[in-house]
Amino acid sequence: MKQTLLAVTLAGGLLATPSHAQDAAPAHFLKQETIITLGDAAKEVQAVLGKERTPGKRLEAYSKFQFSPELRPKLQEIFGTERPLPMTRVAGGVKGQVNYVARLAPYAYKQDNGTDFTWTELVSKVNVDKSGRATTSTTVWPSLVISRPDMSVSLLNMNMISKQQTGADEVTYGTAVLKIGSIVMRDAPAGDTELKETMRFEDIEAKSDVRRRGAMAEIIYGSSIKAIVFGNERVEHVNSAFRLTNVPVKAVAELGKQWREQQGKKLEAAEEREQLLKALQDFGKRVAIAGATLFIDNISIGYHGNTASLKGRIGFQKVVEADFKDLSALLKKLVGRIEVRLPVALVRDASRAFITRTINPAAPDAAKQIDAGTDSVVSMVVGRTVSGGYGVVEQDELRTVIEIKDGKVTVNGKPVEVPAGVINSLNAKAAPQPAPAPTQEAQ
Q: Could you say which residues form the signal peptide (predicted)?
């Protein structure tokens, strides 16, 4: 997260709406007026900050920024203040370092559509070195509660730490770590007015890291959830770790420039999405031609002491501009290898938990039905995979390797035909649009 966009990012994140989503937010969640107000606020901030590129100058500009008179009463309704998350310069710290503090005061935003937001004070501290390009920030937010008469979602003990450096290429490098102590969901059973916990996520963490490797950048992302609890079930952990390597720094810089230029234009939502999609497509082409590779270092889930895992890599080899005119040629240059491991005990435990929910516990033969149902699912998942040649069982694990090369896919060495319909749909081009009717002037 760029610290110079701290206020807009957090305020937007608070109510979960991007500036271009004014025509798409669900009415039952946020009022349309709220969506529009947040989008307009984001655009006003971007119009000011877009003139500055170094973080230090952007922070200083935001500390002096005031929203337009038209927006102030609308922001007052949502946040309880006309200037949510004001950035204030404070004394202290290392010599030559400039320090700022931003605060979002506690408030209860009561809507007339049945969904309300209540939060405690958010405090963010940002330090900038004397060059104005290196920033360190810490943000703490004890709680945010989204509630309706029949349900609620509580996000507790949130904090973020980031250390970033903006290079001369205007690309921001560094790390950011976001932690959430828990997310708790509650609802009211039919005919009941008391909210009861239905699901809980414990100790959530997300990390990002952007590093420069000469003319290339490496983007690293990881996340973890210590536990997911629902009813009597507990998933012990969910982890993921990815790396995207060989990403041209110039491509990253150009994507950022295009995004900033787009923010400075007054575009309709559809046109804004179209331009963003084109910028991402151009970025994807440059990344593929450069030979970028996505490494899946770890995707894993733990249940009853057993862990299912997936790891591998996916990338392109020797892609040229002409390949993008023929998707079948491009797909032939896609290469990948993914290893999957699934403990048989985990399949059995998960199957039993599912089958148990479908059987009436009062039935005389409930235990036998659960055993039979569990055996049937395990046989289908494990037995058919092995008998079909798509995997093997080693050390009580179902294992397989998926490989992609020369336009072909194999699972455990066995070819898998990609349906022609998939290729045809990917190759399909949009139908030509009829020419607009001539205007009276043209006639």
A: 1-21
Expressed as residue numbers, the domain containing 401 is: 323-427
β pairing state of 414-416 and 134-148:
unpaired
For the whole model, what pTM was predicted?
0.83
Does any domain span residue 285? no
CA distance 414 to 390: 7
Does residue 376 belong to any structural domain of this protein? yes
Spatial neighbors of 274 by CB under 8 A, at least 6 apart, are none
| pLDDT at residue 329, rounded to an integer | 85
Maximal C-alpha separation, the chain: 83
How far apart, in Å, are the Cα atoms of 286 and each of 279, 317, 326, 328?
11, 13, 16, 18
Q: How far apart are CA 152 and CA 156, in angstroms?
A: 13
pLDDT, mean of residues 2-14: 34
Q: Is residue 263 part of a domain?
A: no
Q: How far apart are CA 221 and CA 242, in angstroms?
A: 5
CB 144 within 8 A of CB 158: yes
Closest C-alpha among 280, 167, 268, 277 to residue 217 = 167
Structural domains counted in the chain: 1
DSSP states of 65-78 = ----TTTHHHHHHH
